[in-house]
């Protein structure tokens, strides 16, 4: 017994002295700054050789406590060989986005606070800033005053939360309490969408007890937008899924028309706007989101277009009671606040990182005009790329309404070859996709760092790669 107690004391003392001296944090800070300074010169994607070196992490878990400086050093020297450099200006894959400096600094500071954001009582500051962000988001996206927001890990969880609220609401309209009775024997819910909807919607429907075969798919047009004329007659058993930003073409569904039809029929409309809904904050692009305020719920990602660090999704919902009912939890020890807003009523999680700090800081730092400028710049760079590539004889396969550019060569083989040649250059990284049965190069502009010059260089990469074909 005694020995055990002593060894615990020794590690406790070790940690106390680490906190006191701060050396460890100085070491981490210096490495972090070095990484930041190398953002422009580092390869955008790690080489195969460097990825291979990550095997060195495959160690035996040590018996004894390690030196913390060595741990941090190992991450810096070995770990960074395997990082994807998407915080720079030349990463165009997956709509990943960069991070604003103020959001990184905020993350550092508030990581030290380590706030558990589930309840008001577990972190008054988190609950308070969630309310502020909720208000600001409604303002910049122009959503109804009664909308509530939940701050979740990403677009997938935002979609999940909204669909849970929709399921509760639609069944309640038909006299069925899904929280008590479950889905078995429940009145039918009609799930309506088009065949270009994001995989996250399907995944979440499965998680919520619906199979893919329960979805009524209607067609989408050439740009991947819903064909409104194909909508069936709607009623109060329908949930319709629309998209603000097709993950390939970047296109936006016709929200106004669909929402008006749905509102009359008491159907629920959910808009998955993970990266695209942010254009509502851009004066020149907000025409794309016309009518979104007539929907019932919305999902978006701050970690994509808004360039907040990862782990930042937002669900917004016009029916606060349905949302809180769908995501409720009760337990003798849970202390809900009578007068304050408890974050966990709006998210699937109970304990959660207080992730709203970085969002709050970025919104405040950019301001309405700065958000507009950043979001609009992604469009401007995408148009620059599409026009530049077009001039060089490349075929652009989509209408560049926002930040997405789809490039296709004469054959799928050539496209695949060209894509890997650019990826292997380490100078830029683009994704691949399938668009209308064709293999395409998919370029997403979503980093505040991407400059006019970066696009010029990327066009050069295409030209060089074409020569090598
Ligand atoms: C990225 C994305 C999602 C999923 O969001 P995550 O943050 O990756 O969970 C859902 N829908 C669309 C349209 C997306 O672009």
Widest β-sheet, arrangement of strands = 2-8-7-6-5-3-4
**Bound small molecules, deduplicated:** pyridoxal-5'-phosphate
Helical coverage, percent range = 40-55%
Secondary-structure element order, as H and E?
Answer: HHHHEHHEHHEHEEHEEEHHEEHEEH
> What is the number of helices?
14
- Structural class comes to alpha/beta
Instruction: Calculate Rg over CA atoms.
Output: 24 Å
**First-to-last CA distance:** 71 Å
pLDDT < 50 stretches: none
Bin the strand percentage.
Answer: 5-15%
Tertiary shape: globular
Average of per-residue pLDDT values:
95
Number of strands: 12
What composes the largest sheet? 7 strands, mixed
Question: Could you write a compact summary of the structure shown?
Answer:
This protein is α/β, with parallel strands linked by helices. The protein has helices spanning 2-21, 23-37, 48-53, 68-77, 101-113, 124-141, 155-173, 178-181, 199-207, 255-265, 320-326, 356-391, 412-425, 452-468; strands at residues 91-92, 148-152, 190-194, 215-218, 238-243, 268-272, 297-301, 313-317, 395-396, 404-408, 429-435, 438-444.
Notable traits:
seven-stranded mixed beta sheet; binds pyridoxal-5'-phosphate; five-stranded mixed beta sheet; alpha/beta; 469 residues
Question: How would you characterize this protein structure?
Answer:
The chain has 469 residues and is of the alpha/beta class. It is built from 14 helices and 12 strands. The strands form 2 sheets. Strands 2-8-7-6-5-3-4 form a 7-stranded mixed beta sheet, with helices on both faces. Strands 1-11-12-10-9 form a 5-stranded mixed beta sheet. The longest helix has 36 residues, at 356-391. The protein starts with a helix and ends with a helix. The model has no long low-confidence stretch (mean pLDDT 95). The structure holds pyridoxal-5'-phosphate (PLP).
